[in-house]
């Protein structure tokens, strides 16, 4: 099917690729199985890389565009470190690719949405009872149900505040594909979210850790 696709687009032309595949979940590092880490890396990171490598010859030939769906969560994690990890990895893949593709006239753009959980439904509300039941005996010995419930409430509260204006992200994707001078990064987020990224990027790690620890304690 890969050969068939490439043959099809070779005659039509191929100018744009949007890597949008993504799954999300909630849980502290030790709560998640190795299988879950492998699944997330496979879908969120390797999925985009696979598609990119498949179409790279055509994108170079037609001087096309490659758009990747990242997230502001690439800069920090608040209960979904596994998702954050994959998005940070995608960002670095793009940084290398963008420089390498310049000589071929191929543009590489990253979309960094803020919280659009209510638009995309990428992450359904989490259930503390289910999370507790799936914990290993080692984790159950360290944590308690109340703590898991607190974290779940905190995370669900974030999800409930997600924007429903998903069209803002779509507009950024369209601009990345169509603009004569597309941006390398499109951050589509609320001012408060942009401020968090700003702190993360410019302040020492100890400052960011203090801000996030304070947020997590609320």
Task: Please supply descriptive tags for the structure shown above.
4-stranded parallel sheet, 9% strand, 4 strands, 60% helix, 218 residues, Rossmann fold, alpha/beta, transmembrane helix
Mind explaining what this structure looks like?
- This protein is an alpha/beta fold and 218 residues long.
- It has a domain at 14-123 and 165-192 and 204-213: NAD(P)-binding Rossmann-like Domain (Rossmann fold, 3-Layer(aba) Sandwich), CATH 3.40.50.720.
- It contains ten helices and four strands; from the N terminus they run αβαβαβαααααβαα.
- The chain has helices at 2-12, 34-61, 81-101, 117-120, 128-134, 137-142, 145-160, 167-178, 191-202, 205-217; strands spanning 16-19, 65-69, 107-113, 185-188.
- The chain has a four-stranded parallel beta sheet, with helices on both faces.
- Strand 2 (65-69), helix 3 and strand 3 (107-113) form a beta-alpha-beta unit.
- Helix 2 packs parallel to helix 3 and helix 5 (128-134) packs across helix 7 (145-160).
- The longest helix has 28 residues, at 34-61.
- It is globular.
- The mean pLDDT is 90.
* Morphology: globular
**Might you state the CATH topology name of the domain at 14-123 and 165-192 and 204-213?**
Rossmann fold
> Count of helical segments?
10
Mean pLDDT over all positions: 90
Distance between the termini: 51 Å
Number of strands: 4
The second-level CATH architecture of the domain at 14-123 and 165-192 and 204-213 is 3-Layer(aba) Sandwich
Largest sheet entry: 4 strands, parallel
For CATH, the homologous superfamily of the domain at 14-123 and 165-192 and 204-213 is named as NAD(P)-binding Rossmann-like Domain
Structural class: alpha/beta
Instruction: List the strand order in the largest sheet.
Output: 1-2-3-4
- What are the secondary-structure elements, in order, as H or E? HEHEHEHHHHHEHH
State the helical fraction. 55-70%
CATH class of the domain at 14-123 and 165-192 and 204-213: Alpha Beta
Taking pLDDT < 50 over at least 5 consecutive residues as the criterion, the unreliable ranges are none
| Strand residue percentage | 5-15%
Radius of gyration: 19 Å
Family: Belongs to the short-chain dehydrogenases/reductases (SDR) family.
Transmembrane segments: 66-83, 195-216
InterPro entries: NAD(P)-bd_dom_sf (IPR036291), SDR_fam (IPR002347)
Keywords: Membrane, Transmembrane, Transmembrane helix
